[in-house]
Amino acid sequence: MALTREQYDDIMRGYMQKQNRRHQLRMQRRDEVYREIPEFKALADQVPEVAVNYLHSRLGIKEGERSGSPALVRPELEKIAERKKELLRSHGYPEDYLLVAPECPLCGDTGFIDGRKCRCFKLKEIEILYSHSHLQELVKEQNFDVLSEAYYEGEDLRRFRIAASACRRMAAEFDEVFRNLYLYGTVGTGKSFLSICIARELLESGHSVIYFSAAALFDKLSMYSFDPKAREELRSFTADLYGCDLLIIDDLGTELTNQFISAQLFTCLNERHMSRKSTVISTNLSLKEMQTRYSDRVFSRITNDYELYKLTGSDIRVLKRRQRTAASSGSGLRQTKIT
Ligand SMILES: [Zn+2]
Description:
Number of strands: 7
Bound molecules: zinc ion
CATH architecture of the largest domain: 3-Layer(aba) Sandwich
Low-confidence stretches: 331-339
Order of helices and strands: HHHEEHHHEHEHHEHEHHEH
Number of helices: 13
Mean pLDDT: 88
CATH superfamily of the largest domain: P-loop containing nucleotide triphosphate hydrolases
Strand order of the largest sheet: 4-5-6-3-7
Radius of gyration: 29 Å
Number of domains: 2
CATH class of the largest domain: Alpha Beta
Distance between the termini: 46 Å
CATH topology of the largest domain: Rossmann fold
Structural class: alpha/beta
Shape: elongated
């Protein structure tokens, strides 16, 4: 998948706006400091002349008595810089008040480094290209802040706690520890919810996340693979799929599986494993069913490289529905497991 011209221009316009805002803020702060600290302005006014002298002395150009030796002029510039910092501090400003940092320190909010797309550009690109998954919307409602144990008890609760803490650990240690998760178990036990919680944490820490239901993922892969005109689209799509920081495949097993899909799944998991990119899979399939449905090599990849967490319990969606009905009919159901 690739950006349209319009989408590309939109991103570039965003960068221009960021650069303009930064420039304006820098000018505002400079004017404010000049107004508040006249000595600061006097020092700043001296800098160009001292700098020219420094340049002359470096180049060995004599300009009357004005040029000093580099050994003398350089400390003079440093002295001015130090005095400016002192002035800012003594007037209650941070010493880097006039240095307005770009949002992206890697590319300075230009979107490119040496002609290649910066990481921040790729993040935007993925957000736009994969917006169909509504991940940005999902993470607003499904995140660790609202994660609730209210729907579990006994063994189900124990399993849920173990899985939830693994998800928190994955998000917290994402840059240090390479992990993959396989969340499996019965329908409606919070597997997708947990994977979206991880997504929210990673999006917030500036990682690229692609979220797909298995059905949508394999639909797209089939569409591009069987269309000879879509070679470039396929190349670009698989590059994103194999290269994003976190890939979430939700509801594995709900797609119509065949040999092609099984092979695609293996390639995807394998490519990501080789480049040490993490994947989270949620599924209603048991391990045995997964092995039968896909292949031994998919089974072996997952059982060897993934942390496996089984979730059990009643279907939370059904519980919620019952609670809503009970609430509207006035009977006070507890917010605990209902069987
Ligand atoms: Zn950047």
